[in-house]
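User: Just a sanity check before I run the rest of the batch. Below are the structure tokens for the first item. I only need the designed sequence back.
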């Protein structure tokens, strides 16, 4: 049966493609910054990192899966999405999937039911940050709908692999942030827009550690210039991340634990703070280290919806490995 697509499907899928671009450039560039020489270089000059093609990773592979399902069905069909994730995994298993994802996707690729496989691999559901890392195309597709619709589709997409309440909350928070970025794309530099992004996320994210972390992020006075943040470092005897982002990372996390709780609050903060500047958003996110590719994928996907295709540096876009849709 041919799925019924909404009348404005072409506009929806164009937004999803924009978000996918923002996500995949962040993912691919972020992945290069696990190497110290690239990390150091990009802090001095955002275009001084190694030249491409930069391979994108599992974040983009799964986001492509969501993009394709929305392209064909106009909504999240969980069975189709699970198969699409598994097909992409089977074709390119070397994209940097986590050990749990490898077991689950291999079972689904072999014909297993995703519900049974997911419960076998992650009892109680996964709260890994994978639910948020892949969500931007969905945020784009539903960005003109109300937030409740965005949250509902984000929940459906998370349940395939990340059914734990924190996994669901992480997907919803990142999706609502992306939709909010699009709705306010005329005024991304306005402090009221940036504050409003936190308000929208807090209003629609279920009670969870993710939501508590976003509330903590909203309380940080990000109007402070970043050099002031840097000064806060000076009194610290321990600087595990060796960057000026240490105080922020201590409050919000940076994805080192690969969980939504430890990833999404920081990403919402970084995206809100730099909602009008993709390049600054990504460099700030890189400075926090942690799960760099995933953090940059989440932040890049949100900010792209605010700044549009012209806001993504063309040098970075040219260096990203081609997307195969
Ligand atoms: Mg990755």
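Assistant: Here's the designed sequence for the first item:
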């Amino acid at each position: 049966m041919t799925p019924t697509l909404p009348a404005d499907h072409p506009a929806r899928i164009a937004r999803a493609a924009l978000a996918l671009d923002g996500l995949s450039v962040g993912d691919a560039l972020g992945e290069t910054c696990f190497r110290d020489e690239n990390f150091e270089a990009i802090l001095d000059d955002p275009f001084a990192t190694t030249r491409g093609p930069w391979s994108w990773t599992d974040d983009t592979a799964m986001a492509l899966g969501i993009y394709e399902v929305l392209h064909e069905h106009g909504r999240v069909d969980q069975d189709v999405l699970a198969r699409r994730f598994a097909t992409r995994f089977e074709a390119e298993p070397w994209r940097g999937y986590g050990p749990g994802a490898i077991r689950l996707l291999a079972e689904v690729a072999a014909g297993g039911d995703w519900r049974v496989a997911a419960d076998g691999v992650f009892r109680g559901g996964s709260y890994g940050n994978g639910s948020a890392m892949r969500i931007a195309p969905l945020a784009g597709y539903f960005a003109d709908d109300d937030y409740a619709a965005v949250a509902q589709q984000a929940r459906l997409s998370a349940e395939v692999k990340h059914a734990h309440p924190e996994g669901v909350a992480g997907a919803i928070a990142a999706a609502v942030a992306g939709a909010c970025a699009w709705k306010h794309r005329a005024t991304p530099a306005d402090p009221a827009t940036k504050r409003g992004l936190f308000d929208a996320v807090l209003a629609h994210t279920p009670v969870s550690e993710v939501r508590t972390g976003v509330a903590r992020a909203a309380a940080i006075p990000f109007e402070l210039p970043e050099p002031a943040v840097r000064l806060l470092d000076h009194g610290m005897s321990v600087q595990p991340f060796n960057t000026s982002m240490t105080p922020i990372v201590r409050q919000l996390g940076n994805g080192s634990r690969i969980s939504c709780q430890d990833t999404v609050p920081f990403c919402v903060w970084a995206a809100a703070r730099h909602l009008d500047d993709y390049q600054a958003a990504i460099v700030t996110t890189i400075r926090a280290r942690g799960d760099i590719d995933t953090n940059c994928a989440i932040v890049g996907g949100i900010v792209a919806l605010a700044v549009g295709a012209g806001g993504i540096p063309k040098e970075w876009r040219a260096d990203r490995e081609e997307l195969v849709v």
